[in-house]
């Protein structure tokens, strides 16, 4: 395993662990999701270089588009939940209450 693969795997794993264990604020969960998407984007962008492929793939651009949509939706949910609940603590959100 090269250092490049190790860095991508460790970045994805650390952001997954951050999402699993540090869930106090919604903004920290969104940042962990964004770092997961960023590590996957970099891995997909470097994949044709690692395989010595002459054709470029469109998959990283599509993933970057979905990542931007996810970030916009997450920030809109953050603003809406902060306005309705008063804070972005995840323990305040209960799906059973209306």
Tell me what the structure shows.
- The chain is mostly helical and 98 residues long.
- The protein has a single domain (1-90), classed as Orthogonal Bundle (Helix Hairpins).
- The protein has three helices and no strands.
- The protein has helices at residues 3-21, 26-50, 59-85.
- Helix 1 (3-21) packs antiparallel against helix 2 and helix 2 runs antiparallel to helix 3 (59-85).
Shape: elongated
Order of helices and strands: HHH
Total helical segments: 3
The beta-strand count equals 0
Low-pLDDT stretches are none
Q: What number is the mean pLDDT?
A: 85
> Which fold does the CATH topology refer to?
Helix Hairpins
CATH architecture: Orthogonal Bundle
Structural class: mainly alpha
CATH level-1 class:
Mainly Alpha
Distance linking N and C termini: 50 Å
Portion of residues within helices: over 70%
In total, the number of domains comes to: 1
C-alpha Rg, in Å? 17 Å
Largest sheet, described in full?
none
Q: Assess the beta-strand content as a share of residues.
A: under 5%
Catalytic activity: a ubiquinone + NADH + 5 H(+)(in) = a ubiquinol + NAD(+) + 4 H(+)(out)
Family: Belongs to the complex I subunit 4L family.
Protein name: NADH-ubiquinone oxidoreductase chain 4L
Keywords: Electron transport, Membrane, Mitochondrion, Mitochondrion inner membrane, NAD, Respiratory chain, Translocase, Transmembrane, Transmembrane helix, Transport, Ubiquinone
